Amino acid sequence: MRKKFAGVQQPLGRWILRHVVEFIVLSPAILVTWLWLKIRRKEVLLIGRGSSTITAFVMPLEVVLRRLVKSNCDLRKVIVLNMSTDANAQIRKMYNRVVRIIGEEDRFSRRLFWWASILGRQQLPRVDILDTQNDPLWHTGQPVVSLNQEELKIGDDFLRSIGVKEGQKIVCYTVRSSSYYQKLIESGVNLKPQTVRNPDESIYHDVAKILSLRGYFVVRMGKDLAAKLPRDLEKYIYDYATFARTDFLDVYFLNKCEFLLNGGTGMFIFRAISNLPTLFSDIYRVVKTFFFGDITLFQKVWLVRENRLATVGEMVAMGDSFSDERHQERLGVRLVKNTAEEILAACDEMEARLNGTWVTTEEDEILQKKYWDLICDSGHHGGRIGAQFLRDNQDLLR
Fold it and tell me: Are 218 and 304 members of one domain?
């Protein structure tokens, strides 16, 4: 028994000893920091614990700040401890304008404030990333941060340099990729790549080509992508992800574009902080809500042994397991990716909604209600499932 648990007990003992020694050594500085927090009535928020992804940084931070703004709290009283590396320098810069953030650049101060806030119970409540996505403040609250005029001018100048015409509308697209997650793993982030969830980017190429022919300037977004665009697509799609990607331009493009076609990535958060809509496609989880104005398509689930598609109710019963490589064989399932036709129909709906020409039918409302009644009991605050997608798959709404 002792041998069995040796590998657990020993690291835990070292962890406790390290924290005790650290507290004893730093106790004078911790006391001074605690007094400063108390006197200045500061509150501390911890974010980014265990993950350096952009969603781990933004989702809990934005919701807490919107709640504080709504209660007329002075945001200058908030100190944010980012426990991971910055996922995007421009996002960090924007939030730095409204709150004080302490990250990896000052680990000593971050540790002092952590100790002082723990002892003084001056931490704001910790918020779970998935819980925050269901928070109605994403739909009712006002954005906390934005690009300033100087930054907008820099972005506008870049658009002219790559040939975007005056008044031309931009559509950005991105897809979940193995290379991005592999890069995170190499940097020390503890996660599972789950490559089975990745969409087929060639499907998005087909959609992007049609959007380009309609007059849109189409931009391929992404980070740490392994492959460039095929040469024959370069006249239809600007391969920004490969040739020009920066943290600043990520934020600029995703605030400037008409909408983002998001193939299962966390990049939607760049839009959500500005209350801008996203077209979610190839969603691989049963999500209880989406952000206001969003349109969503989900990956269907094929029941291999029964040779049929799973109903939405059956997907809910399986939870996220149906898209987890560890459980798919046991469940006897495989994912069915969205088609170009399905995605293009959702693009048409998004265009019409943005233009104010979309007409929702009584049938559409009935199908939306059927879907959400299967997903959640507490009502629904956010976006919608694609209308044509539900019409074509209404037999699965049970």
Answer: yes
Supply 289's token pair.
């809500």
The answer to whether position 204 is within a domain reads yes
Are 114 and 185 in the same domain?
no
State whether 284 and 362 are in the same domain.
Answer: yes
Tokens of 172: 């950005």
Domain of 316 in residue numbering reads as 149-396
Phi first, then psi, for residue 281 (nearest 5°) are -130, 160
Dump the DSSP string for 295-340. Answer: EEEE-EEEETTTTEEPPHHHHHHHGGGGG-TTTHHHHTEEEEPPPH
284 with 176, same domain: the answer is: yes
Total domain count for the chain?
Answer: 2
- With respect to residue 3, please indicate whether it lies within any of the assigned structural domains: no
Ramachandran angles phi, psi of 251, nearest 5°: -65, -45
CA geometry: angle 378, 382, 384, nearest 5 deg: 105
Domain identity same for 126 and 154: no
Q: Within this chain, do residues 51 and 190 fall inside the same structural domain, yes or no?
A: no
- One pLDDT digit (tens) per residue for the chain, 398 residues: 444 434 444 576 787 778 788 888 889 999 999 999 999 999 999 988 767 788 889 998 999 999 999 999 999 999 999 998 899 999 999 999 999 999 999 999 999 999 999 887 777 877 667 677 778 888 889 999 999 999 999 999 999 999 999 999 999 999 998 777 776 666 666 666 678 999 999 999 999 999 999 999 999 999 888 889 999 999 999 999 999 999 999 999 999 999 999 999 989 999 999 999 999 999 999 888 788 899 999 999 999 999 999 999 999 999 889 999 999 999 999 999 999 999 999 999 999 999 999 999 999 999 999 999 999 875 566 789 999 999 999 999 99
Phi, psi of 165 (to 5 degrees): -80, 155
Tell me which of 88, 120, 140 is where a domain ends: 140
What tokens appear for 131 in the block? 């819980």
Same domain, 119 and 156: no
Q: What CA–CA distance (Å, rounded) separates 251 from 151?
A: 10
Same domain, 200 and 89: no
Residue matched to tokens 């509308």:
169
